[in-house]
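Project channel, design review

CF: Before we commit to the Oceanidesulfovibrio marinus constructs, I'd like one complete example in the thread so the newer folks can see what an input/output pair looks like. Taking NADH dehydrogenase FAD-containing subunit.
RD: sounds good, go ahead.
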Amino acid sequence: MEADLMQNLEKRIALLEERIEEMQARMPEDQLSMVVFSGELDRLLAAFIIAVGAAAMYDRVVMFMTFWGTTVMRDPAKTVSKPEFTAKMFDKMLPSGPDGVHLSRMDMFGMGRRMMKSIMKKKGVLSLDDLIRQAADYGVEIVICEMSLDVMGLSADELRDYPNITLAGVAKFLQEANQSAVTLFI
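CF: and here is what came back for NADH dehydrogenase FAD-containing subunit:
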């Protein structure tokens, strides 16, 4: 009787240990994953401020740049020949890097943007370009959506030099988000 009780108890303990291992395997990692969909100055500032702040808290910070968010990573000094008409049109219409992005509200043909940048400078707030550099220094990883680049007629050759930048699809973001303690959409 006592032997049966002991065997039953050992089986239950083994089952509990197995369940604990399964739960630990599914637990999120100490990382932040962020979708950056917007290409507007105020939202990009928020995204990079959060990313830089999170880099001090989490083991990893991954920003997935898609559609309008990809344009902030363009390097205005790089020019790429574009044979397709739509790619040429997007090239002319889309901002090239951090200096060309507009405010989401009250841009007023660039006057609001200039005013915002002036106030930020007076208050000692880092510019978007400085925040991007700081994110690179802190190891923030940036994943650029390949489909978005293709649809918008952009190429990897015109992206800024950033140490932790990769091209991937939505599956990469979903994989990262699935492992993350925190996931944001900006």
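RD: helpful, thanks. Residues 3 and 38 are 65 Å apart (CA to CA).
CF: The first strand starts at residue 29 and ends at 36.
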